[in-house]
């Protein structure tokens, strides 16, 4: 209770001291477009019932790294948007890039797409399975114009995997998980390097003017909004590269953070400040061009922060890449004039898979009965404060990651092999098995030196070989008290639920690297490389010719 009170005080203090900039008080900066963005809402006629949907996905933003969670990093735009909208304070994503993005765009858990292990690597012949219907495809069915700006990271080894083939009318951004913010080059390993900036299906060499990606992506968003008719519904998916490493930012954003000694934290703060300003400019463009009054803006991080790269998840445990709360509990909010309960906090359970059915329903679309979704329509939960239809979340089951050497069926009561990395939430309870990953609590003091200094980190020692943890997340959101020994019956119930989920899992897709992926073989550009074997094509042609000959002979015989 004392910790909660202190956190609430810090959050309130940050709101009082940081203050909000008026929409019209900031000019220039991240993605400034020519002209006055502060113009009145144009008379675009009565808005259609289908809302404009703007989904903004930040990359690697830590749970604490927003002003209203008590951060020393100033985020006046995010604070204002969240304060006037609905803050999602029981909101979950996945611990890494590809898993969160795949679940957002399909409404399905990783175990149902085959992407339950790690991320899609640049050299892997792998992508989001083509038999999965995507969110932009469903929105296009009901008349939406669909545009993506930013980071894809759902595979590109063949042309059919590209964003423009998965439902987006246009795409401007990167295909990989990370890269230089200015040059847009990425090396996956020594000698395996290439350019990674695309416009639709081609390398965007003409746009390579050394512009910082956060600003460049914002300018592209402004161009899309300026050229589109606001009377027609638009889905705009803005997946910023920030604040993922490498830690780079324009010099002027360091102005307020010279006092941060830790160089990674200082760079991270500058990157987040630039991102906050970019989102301000996106919001201004929505107002200027007549979208705002009929728009829904959703903001989310894709996973927790990485302390070694400047991110902070305090007071949560763990970091990006782990199934502790610090890896999967995210910053998120909804801002919209269409909300009924503006200025509220939603503490109901919400997961990133829920956006798929929620947004399709808002768009007046139809969800096919044969699409077995893991997400729920949570609009009434968010907008009206009703109870969430969601009572559980399968955080993941990764059958490949079995690094818990002491895991066994015996430790799982004969129900589950606890060597397998898995995590599940059912109502108040959360169960983890296997090796959940880096488990320290990293307080703000850890960033006081050149570190981060692990001397400041809080650690908990558990008996060697432990492979099962149980927490009451509602009462203990910081995962400090393991209850697995005290409540074995609850452990068994959750293990059975894991086992039930596992019966519905599809095989893991995690192929070995393909040497044909080397950008040197593709004009120095990361891009689709997979082509059907010429021999196979020839054999298919010869088979087709033989069939034609046989059919002709049959006709002659007749």
TrEMBL record:
CDD domains: 4-S. Residues 506-558 are annotated as: Disordered. Its cofactor is Ca(2+). Residues 530-543 have a biased composition (Basic and acidic residues). Residues 1-24 form the signal peptide. GO terms for molecular function: metal ion binding; sulfuric ester hydrolase activity. The keyword Hydrolase applies. Keywords: Calcium, Glycoprotein, Hydrolase, Metal-binding, Signal. Pfam families: Sulfatase. Residues 51-363 form the Sulfatase N-terminal domain. InterPro entries: Alkaline_phosphatase_core_sf, ARSB, Sulfatase_CS, Sulfatase_N. Transmembrane segments: none annotated. Residues 544-558 have a biased composition (Basic residues). PANTHER family: ARYLSULFATASE, ARYLSULFATASE J. Belongs to the sulfatase family. This is ARSJ Arylsulfatase. It comes from Mohoua ochrocephala. The lineage of its organism: Eukaryota, Metazoa, Chordata, Craniata, Vertebrata.
């Amino acid at each position: 209770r004392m910790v909660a009170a202190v956190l609430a005080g810090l959050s309130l203090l940050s709101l009082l001291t940081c203050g909000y900039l008026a929409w019209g008080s900031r000019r220039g900066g991240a993605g400034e477009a020519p002209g006055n963005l502060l113009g009145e809402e144009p008379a675009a006629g009565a808005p259609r019932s289908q809302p404009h949907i703007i989904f903004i996905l930040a990359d690697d933003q830590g749970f604490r790294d927003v002003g209203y969670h008590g951060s020393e990093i100033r985020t006046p735009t995010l604070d204002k948007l969240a304060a006037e909208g609905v803050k999602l304070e029981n909101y979950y994503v996945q611990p890494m890039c590809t898993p969160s993005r795949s679940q957002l765009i399909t409404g399905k858990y990783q175990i149902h797409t085959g992407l339950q292990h790690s991320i899609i690597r640049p050299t892997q012949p792998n992508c989001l399975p083509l038999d999965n219907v995507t969110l932009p495809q469903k929105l296009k069915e009901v008349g939406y114009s669909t545009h993506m700006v930013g980071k894809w990271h759902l595979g590109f080894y063949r042309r059919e995997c590209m964003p423009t083939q998965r439902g987006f009318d246009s795409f401007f951004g990167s295909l990989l998980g990370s890269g230089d913010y200015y040059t847009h080059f990425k090396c996956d390993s020594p000698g395996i390097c290439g350019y990674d900036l695309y416009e639709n299906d081609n390398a965007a060499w003409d746009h390579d003017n050394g512009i910082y990606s956060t600003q460049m992506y914002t300018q592209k968003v402004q161009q899309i909004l300026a050229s589109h008719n606001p009377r027609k519904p638009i889905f705009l998916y803005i997946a910023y590269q920030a604040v993922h490493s490498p830690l780079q930012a324009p010099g002027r954003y360091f102005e307020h953070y010279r006092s941060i000694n830790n160089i990674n934290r200082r760079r991270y703060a500058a990157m987040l400040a630039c991102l906050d300003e970019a989102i301000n400019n996106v919001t201004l463009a929505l107002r200027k061009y007549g979208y705002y009054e009929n728009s829904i803006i959703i903001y989310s991080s894709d996973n927790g922060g990485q302390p070694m790269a400047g991110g902070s998840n305090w007071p949560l445990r763990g970091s990006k890449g782990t199934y502790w709360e610090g890896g999967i509990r995210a910053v998120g909010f909804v801002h919209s004039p269409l909300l009924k309960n503006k200025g509220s906090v939603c503490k109901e359970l919400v997961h990133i898979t829920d956006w798929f059915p929620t947004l399709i329903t808002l768009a007046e679309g139809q969800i096919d009965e044969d699409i077995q979704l893991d997400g729920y329509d949570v609009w009434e939960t968010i907008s009206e404060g009703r109870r969430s239809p969601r009572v559980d979340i399968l955080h993941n089951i990764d059958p490949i990651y079995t690094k818990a050497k002491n895991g066994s069926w015996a430790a799982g009561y004969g129900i589950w092999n606890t060597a397998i990395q898995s995590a599940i939430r059912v109502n108040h309870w959360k169960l983890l098995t296997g090796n959940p990953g880096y488990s320290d609590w990293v307080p703000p003091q850890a960033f006081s030196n050149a570190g981060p200094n692990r001397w400041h980190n809080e650690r908990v020692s558990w008996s060697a070989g432990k492979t099962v943890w149980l927490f009451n997340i509602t009462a203990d959101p910081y995962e400090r008290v393991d209850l697995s020994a005290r409540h074995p019956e609850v452990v068994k119930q959750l293990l059975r639920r894991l086992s039930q989920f596992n019966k519905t899992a599809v095989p893991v897709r995690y192929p070995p690297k393909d040497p044909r992926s080397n950008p040197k073989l593709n004009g120095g550009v990361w891009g689709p490389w997979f082509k059907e074997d010429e021999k196979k094509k020839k054999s298919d042609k010869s088979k087709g010719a033989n069939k034609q000959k046989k059919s002709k002979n049959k006709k002659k015989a007749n």
